[in-house]
Model the fold of this input.
Amino acid sequence: MWEMVKSGGWLMLPLLLASTLALAIILERAWTLRSRRVAPPHLLADVWTQLQAGELQGDALRRLKDGSPLGTLLAAGLINARHGRAIMKESIEDAASVVIHELERYLSLLGTIALISPLLGLLGTVIGIIDAFLVASSGGLGDPTALAGGISKALVTTAGGIFVAIPAMIMHRYYLRHIITLTVRMEQQAVKLVDMLHGDREVDIREEGA
Done:
């Protein structure tokens, strides 16, 4: 395997760096974007219970805000609940923009890696073919080993670029979709909180699928 990497030339170094960085981002986001961490089940029910008991003040409210992204939205709404329904919803929307930005951290870099890796591979292909032609033009056709070196560089870097790009692109798309799903879930819970405090209709605070 190492011999194959070395045959790709110096362009394999940025590809190896890109693959390591992509793997680190994928693992970090897999841990950070866990559904139970972002939107803990039954959190809204727990918040409502504490509100009715008059326990959600001061330190309890700060713990709610720091505990999870969903808790951040609910805490933002509760802090401004006394100002009316419109202000409460606006404060939740403002907090949501910050939360979503945090959820999407590093995904732009992952998408960039997915885009540039094939281009690095293509650059290696071009350099390898140029090397092969230089060997041929200098009378190297009688030396298959020298000619094969340029062709090998062209093929290995192309394969390396694709090898890095495919999983990076798949996970980039997956995480973007996963964040949309989490955002919808958090918005639903936040709207339920607004309706419970300022609405006239009954709200089922049980978590779907619980």
Notes: Residues 2-198 form one domain. The longest helix spans residues 144-198. The chain has a mean pLDDT of 84.
